[in-house]
Amino acid sequence: MNIHAVPPEVDEVLAAAGFRAVGPVGPGGSGLLARALDGSAWAVELYVVPGRLDDDARARIGALRAVRHEHVARLLEVVALPGDRLALFVEHHEGPSVRLLLAARAALSEGEAVTVAIPIAQGLGALHDAGVAHGAVGPDSVVVRPDGRPVLVDLRAAVAGTGAAGGDVTGLVECALAALPPEPGPADLVGALGELRDGSADARRVVDRCFRAVPPEPVLLPSAADLAAADVARVQGGERVAALRRVASGRPVAPDRWSVARRASIAVAALVLVGGLAVGVFGWRGAARAVAEPDGGSAAAAPASTSPATTSQASTSQATTSPDEQPERDPARAAELLTTRRAQVLVSADAAGLDGVDEVGGPAHADDLVLLASLGGDRAVGLDVRVIEARALDGDQQVARVRVVSTTSAYELVGPDGATRAGGPSVTATVVLELRWGHDGWRVWQVLPA
Questions:
Q1: Which CATH superfamily is domain 3-91 in?
Q2: Burial classification of residue 363, based on how many CB atoms lie within 10 Å of its CB (0-12 exposed, 13-18 middle, 19 or more buried)
Q3: N or C: which end of the chain has fewer CB within 10 A?
Q4: What is the pTM of this model?
Q5: What pLDDT, in 10s, does the model give residues 165-190?
């Protein structure tokens, strides 16, 4: 779903539930990824589908909501919308789809394929036992989480009741076979699963065939850089990039789309897919305020640590810190360094460099990968980042929250062809960075409202 064309009634449903839309999600960007307004890490997916809450729909929805399986995304709530439409709130799982996974790496080994197929087949068994078919099993509806756990997502067809159990099994078998290399492997998983393509078998036979064919082995996930490159290839020229560039070039977005977001004081975060273009592409993601507000007082019982203002020319090639240096232990100082380092990484369009800024697999890392993909080869010229204040709010030796006030200068965007377009204005914004300590020091886990 195009975030710049969210119907007002959908915006209202999200705001009433305590969420804000931050970008597209799901097969072909068909849904909205929404994050909680309260600053927590909770995220949901929202899909709008045609339909009414008649008795049949209520029965399917009730059955779906009752399913609790670790390899099936949960249907959290369904809200009726005007015009015979339903808004589906679905549990969000981070991770690439099987389609994106295969675009970023070689085909799966037979052991990796059964590692994906067996849990999904077990999840399908749980759905079928509840009297519901998924209806859209395929490489776009299976995601592999950072911990390697596959999850079946995209419940639109299940709510609509357009699928059948046999079709689910066929879709899973076809998905597994398509993930394998063309030549048969030593266990001949192609032969073992090929007989189940006709949909006459139930999901448990898929599990049995897989276990008999080959032992499962962990799925090798591509690097963040490879996933970002694959995502760029997928969206290049697509609606998501076009929408982002439309905002970056100063072309207006219909103001009525964002009335609810403005009333909720999250206009900056809700205006754009990646939360950055409204505050300069390279501002921190999250519910940043467009103009920094003075601190209303010290946080109660919070160990306040204020670090002096720091200026970084983000467009220069000089790194803020060397990876060989001892990690900065003070979270406030680390937040400064990470803010300026992130700007340098994004200006250089180096996805691998995000590993030195964000905690891999966390919300901030996922958001920044999307931001990098959206740039499509453009460079920012004249970009400066100045950290005005970094104040530790609370935390311990492993997790800390730091309030950061920073200013992003005005800049221009220069495309690969040398064409120059308007970039972003100079903006001061305030966010809270949640940092987590690891082997390489502090990294940003997520960006919270200030």
A1: Phosphorylase Kinase; domain 1 (3.30.200.20)
A2: buried
A3: C
A4: 0.53
A5: 999 999 999 999 999 988 777 878 88
